Amino acid sequence: MKILIYKWNVFNQKDIQSAMRNLGHEADIFEEQESSKKIYYSQELIDVFLEYDLIFTVNYFPRVSDICEKIGKKYVSWTVDSPLIAMFHQSIFNECNYVFIFDKFSYVQFKQMGVKNVYYLPLAVNTKRIDELLENSPKAELDRFSADVSFVGGLYHKNSYDGIKDKLPEYLKGYFDAAMVAQLDWFGENIFDRMLTVDVLEQLSQIIDFQKDERSFSDLKLVFSTTFLGYKMAQFERITCLNKLATKCHVSLYTDKSNDELIGVDVIGSVNYENDMPKVFNRSKVNMNFTIRNIRSGIPLRVWDVLGAGGFLLTNFQAELPSLFENGKHIVYYESIDDMLNKAQYYLTHDEEREQIAKNGHALVSQYHSYEKRLEQILSIVQSV
Q1: What fold, for 2-124+371-384?
Q2: N or C, where is the chain less crowded by C-beta within 10 Å?
C-alpha cells in the first residue's frame, strides 16, 4: 500500500513511518507549503493525495478529511492528544474517515455521537530504535543523563487562562483556584465539567471572544475546560508535584522554559525526542509522568517512551492503566500527592525492585505494544471495512 503521512508537529511520525515500511508499505511524510494551506480545497494538496492509496495523520484535521471525502481517498487519523477540539466538526462524520483514539473516554463520546468509523487504540513505542540508540551510545554519554527523579515535559507557561485571569471577577478567580486545588488528589474524574454551570459560562462569554468554524460543534464549555482550565491545571499540578518531590529528592526537570514558582528543582532545559530523551529515561532512577487532566482515561505517549527506554515509571493513576499494565510489576502508579512522594522515596532506595519493574515494563511493551502491531490493527480495519 502507498501511504502518505501528512506532516504535523508531533514526536512519533518517524516511528510510524518506519513501522509502515517494516510492514512492507511505501510511506512518505509530506509537508504542505504555507501558501497551499490558505486554500481549503488546495489543488496542490489534492494532486499529492491522488498519488496515494491512503492518507494518514497523527491527530485529526477536518480539512484533510474533507479533501479525502471529495476525492474518494481513505483517511486515517490516530490521536496523541485528547480531547481534540478539531474533532468536534461536521467532517468527523465523513465516510472516508477511520479515526483511532487512544483515550477510551473520548472514543466512547464520539461513538455515542454516531461517528461510524471510530475505534479505540492505545499508543505504542519503537523499542527497536531506542534499544539500538542506547546500545550504541558510550557509557559516558549515557551517564551524563543520570538522575534520581526526572520529569521530561512542559509547564504550559503559555496558557489561555493566564491571558484572561485579570479580567475575571475575584469570586470566579477564587472559584477556579479552589477547583484546581481540589482536583489535585482527585483522579478518574474531571470536576471542571460540574463547575462550568450555565451562569458561569454566561459570565465567561462576556470576557472571552469565542469564535469557531461554522461547521464546528464545539462550545465554550469544552474549549474553556480544556484549553483554559486544562492547561492551567497541568501547570499547577506539575509545579506542585515537582516542588513536593524536591523537598525529599533531587529532581531534574527537562523542559523548554522554567517557572519562578519552582523551588529546589534542577531545571536543565529541553531534550531532543529521538536522541536524548531515551537516555534521560534510561538513566533516571525514577521517571515521573503527570498526565494532563484533559486526557480522561488514556495513557499518554510519555508512558510508552519511558518503558520503551527501559526506565522505571512512577505515574498518576489513569483508568486504562490496569488493563494494560500491572501495578508494581510493569509500572507504579500513585493515587495522591503524598502517595507519590512516599513511593518516589521508596523506589529510590530499593534498587532491585525498581530495576526489575523497569525490565518487566520494557519486555512487555517490546512484545505487545510496538508500532508495527498497532498499524497492523489499523490497516486490517481499513482494508476490511
Answers
A1: Rossmann fold (3.40.50)
A2: C
